[in-house]
Design a protein that fits this description.
Mean pLDDT: 93
Largest sheet: 3 strands, antiparallel
Radius of gyration: 18 Å
Helix content: 55-70%
Oligomer: single chain
Strand order of the largest sheet: 1-3-2
Number of strands: 3
Order of helices and strands: HHHEHHEEHH
Shape: elongated
């Protein structure tokens, strides 16, 4: 069954549908590895930007403070991150990705790349690059 043209003919609707399909592809693969998309996002942010406060992670990813705590609890339980009190402000925790977290992230990167490949299986490499460039402009990345 298809969407009404009034919906399917709009960029907003199509982006939403594409995002749903992409998230589903990634979530299925990440769930099989025992994590969710926000776990992956936090690990990626730590790997790219280095140790950060919990609040900085939340701001960087637009993730609510309580959700950051829940994700970090899971990641710490898996040995993927460590949290230490900030020496400059003992009320804050500094989060660092562990070696195990870095190794796991490499595997999670492959799973997300597989999801991308499946989602874009019918899209040429040239069109893929163009799509990424356009989405980056739209998202202001």
């Amino acid at each position: 069954m298809s969407d009404p043209h009034r919906l399917s003919g709009t960029v907003i609707w199509l982006l939403g549908r594409a995002a749903q399909r992409g998230h589903q592809q990634a979530q299925e693969r990440l769930a099989a590895a025992g994590i969710r998309k926000w776990h992956y996002a936090v690990l990626a942010a730590l790997a790219e930007y280095g140790q950060q406060s919990q609040a900085d992670i939340g701001r960087r990813l637009s993730l609510d403070r309580s959700d950051v705590v829940a994700v970090l609890n899971d990641l710490q339980g898996d040995g993927y991150v460590t949290r230490e009190p900030d020496p400059a402000d003992r009320r804050r925790n500094i989060v660092t990705i562990s070696d195990a977290g870095l190794r796991a992230l490499e595997g999670f990167d492959r799973l997300v790349a597989e999801a991308d490949d499946r989602l874009l299986a019918d899209v040429s490499a040239e069109d893929r690059a163009r799509l990424i460039a356009l989405l980056e402009r739209i998202a202001h990345v």
